[in-house]
User: Fold these one by one.
Assistant:
Number 1:
Amino acid sequence: MISVTKLSKSYGTFDAISGISFTVPEKSICGLLGKNGAGKSTTIKILTGSIPPTSGDAILGGHSVVTNPDQVRRLIGYVPENAPLYEDMQLVEYLSFCARLHGLKTNQVKSAVKESLERCSLDKVSTKLCAYLSRGQRQRAAIAQAIVHRPTILVMDEPSTGLDPTQIVSMRALIRELSETATILFSSHIIQEVEALCSHVVVLSDGKVSASGTIGDFTEKGKKLEDSFLSVIPQVSHENAYEATL
């Protein structure tokens, strides 16, 4: 489970996020939805221990990102927006390296890497240099490195960025499968992606939580998630709906 309480991050006089609070239930898929600049990436970076908050706290799997960020990093799997690959390594070498970084013992590495390759449908390209992986393969490789240590929490930043429609469908299926064993939080500015995947939604606007709840809360009485999103982002009109989701 993820619990965020009054989390803030300031850069000088600029508040990237301001006092945000929300929870993500265990083994659910939660979409962090908002237009560009809403504070999604800042929130993700704090939750993964990449940057410290100015104030507030977040608890992931019982550990605080403020007082115990190293334990949080060991516990979670993190998929950055840009796939973090060492291009001069074969994929299997890269995943083995990641497994060792996460503290897996030598006799655990081979089976863990094999499992992550199979779950991400990458076993047939395991000996390929990371530099020669396709865009879709690179995104799946980013997930493979995030799950190689079998984390109970996955945090993803725009996991479908740059994928073609077929690859997006494949990515959604993989995320659904991973949610069977892990709590998943992913950021997105694509309303349709959140609506297709998520059981819970948190909407950010100008660094604050505009709304949060289950997907049913946002789509009750036949309402579309897009309409609910626009209704809690007052500065965005329906005429600018397309722009808001870019």
Note: Residues 236-246 have pLDDT under 50 and may be disordered.
Number 2:
Amino acid sequence: MPIQPWLPPLKPGEISEARLIRAILDGTFPIHSDLPGERELAALLGVTRPTLREAMQRLERDGWIDIRHGKPTRVRDFWKEGNLGVSLSLAKYQDPLPEDFVPNLLQVRTLLAPAYTKSAVASHPQEVSGFLEGASALGEDAGAYADFDWRLHWTLTIHSGNPFFTQFANSVRRLYLEAGERYFNHAEARAHSQAFYKSLQDAARRADGHAAGRLAAQVMQESLALWLRQEAGQGTPDGAGLAGH
């Protein structure tokens, strides 16, 4: 059995950052409240003041807090003032996630996917078509589908020539894979994506970027609607309802 690589141990600054985020999310330090002074907060966390400063600088960068020299550090309204780092931390630390978190992420993908899909197919049709050859070997495993689907979008962003698309894809990979396993646990979702892969490959073989962009826009909207139906209990996961038969 192959040995999985071990994750490196968290550093004190990373532990402090995680604890502060959880304290903000659980209301210990509510939005618009002031954090304790540096000396007191370092003592509460059990770290040195330089370590605390390192953690707080990262939290300020992502939009969790506002460090004001000579004044108490303020907890920001991270929903309005935060950046993508806040969303990634929410995916990591908040359980359960807000109900609209994944739909909001899918809406962002709906806006971005047509642009990077069009550019990728227009400029690198053979690479896109070649990648899609692997779709026929997916079987019915939800995890395999989630991984393939993320790698497809990542590949499209790479070949779009715009690194911002790729950075976004990399940033949401973990959440994408977790949500994808739930989504692809439904046979309807797998069939829907297989149809997308085939149609996209046809467009890539024609090097028709415009058709690929239109296809992505349509399919991403349909995927969002399918996710919402599944989460509302209107879809039936594989194997459900079979007990006792």
Note: Residues 15 and 81 are 23 Å apart (CA to CA).
Number 3:
Amino acid sequence: MPPLVPGYPVTLMVEGRHCLVVGGGPVAARKAQGLAGAGALVTVVARRCCPEVRALADKAAASPFGRVTLEERPYRAGEASTYRLVVTATGDPEVDGAVAADAEAADVWVNSADDLAHCSFTLPSVHRDGPVSIAVSTAGTSPALAVWLRRRAASGLGTELGLLAALLEEARQAVRAEGRPTDSVDWDAVLSGPLPDLVAAGRIDEARALLGAAITQGVGAAASPEPTR
């Protein structure tokens, strides 16, 4: 087996952009849900749909955003070219191959579920906490390993990562408001100290005080007592 060329990790900003999911089974439902959760305008095309897909469409119908639209029909040749991003998960190699070929011909990024040869991008296993995303990829070779690694990484990094990120963003904005570059603070020193444990323990006022000291010093956080467990 030739060595795999590693992929180029990115985070796509799909909010407000039209994306296509072809397929109506549970796998397609997960793909559509992930895209809709990132703000994409998702069209799901399938001959038949499972309850999970219908539930996504029903939820969107009651929402002012309308992020998921369901069209129960066969895929039309060439329609992949009208979208920014395409995922195909019908389980039918002929249909999935045709969708992938249309997307590739139009230079549209495409993921074909469980079919690495027809993918121009793969989907990592993702853990989310507010603005924080932990993504693990095996370049499509083993989705099960990616899930296992993601669970281990998420459990090892503790809780309240989203809140920690929000507090750090507050601190970065405060540094900018003073007319200073954000790299004037040693953020690595801040994060290597007690700040993450303070946030995980719910001691937010102390965490903010610690960040305030870091901003004032410009070289990392001042000493602080260890959080009570």
Note: Residues 161-177 form the longest helix (17 residues).
